[in-house]
Design a protein that fits this description.
This protein has one domain: Decaprenyl diphosphate synthase-like (Undecaprenyl pyrophosphate synthetase, 3-Layer(aba) Sandwich), CATH 3.40.1180.10. Strands 3-4-2-1-5-6 form a six-stranded parallel beta sheet, with helices on both faces. The chain is built from seven helices and six strands, in the order E-H-H-E-H-E-H-E-H-H-E-E-H. Helix 1 crosses helix 2. Helix content is about 45%, strand content about 15%. The structure holds 3-methylbut-3-enyl trihydrogen diphosphate (IPE) (2 copies) and magnesium ion. The site of one 3-methylbut-3-enyl trihydrogen diphosphate (IPE) has 11 residues, from strand 2.
Length: about 240
Amino acid sequence: MQRLPRHIAIIMDGNGRWATEKGEDRLYGHWHGVESVRDITTGCAELGLEYLTLYAFSTENWDRPAYEVKGLMELLIETIKKEVPTLNKNNIRLHVIGDVSMLPDAAKNELNEALAETSHNTGLNLIMALSYSSRWEITKAIQNIAADVKLGKLLPENINQDTVKNYLATKNFPDPELMIRTSGEYRISNFLLYQLAYSELYFTDTLWPDFRKENLYEAIVDYQGRERRFGKRVSN
Ligand code: IPE
Ligand code: IPE
Ligand code: MG
């Protein structure tokens, strides 16, 4: 408890394989993935973490077969509606990063309501990455920086790392100290490329629908055993 990360980011992967292993449709895996989201979110709130970012849907995921995208959107709408009381009970504030304009109207409406209904909460910040990709985010940031330069609001020579940070979707959140990916894939898949610069990375074979608080604690303990140097030298 002395050395907890403030911010954990998770690539929730393996729902499809989890379902296929059971001879079920991929959507069955996505529905079960929601139970893990609930367990991990409340686990992080109990630990007193400040930020949890969950990669739920990437901009590339729009190119999956239509029935899977439709199923995921329905799941999203239903889950947001259902989970708001639990978020409020646990003092969790919801945030969203991503190209929300791509989402169906019903999802946008549910999201906006959930954002408003949890905006007074002061505990864990739950950041859902929805229709998110890092290259989308960085491209958007560059467009907005260029627009502000054109308007004379910003001088190119004054652009520094703080400026860049302030144009990202994550401007209000610190960088994650720990990034977890489930399902045995060893890649970042367009997630927080800028923000993960010095994050500790943790990979586990556990598929997302099987990932529970105990697995989260294991990842945190692993993180706590690491020496973070940030390019410097710790001793002599
Ligand atoms: C992660 O599970 C959830 C989303 C990407 C929406 P997958 O659907 O990628 O499951 P696998 O990786 O195919 O098993
Ligand atoms: C990354 O998982 C995106 C999410 C978990 C939302 P994917 O399953 O889409 O990534 P790849 O295709 O394995 O890289
Ligand atoms: Mg996957």
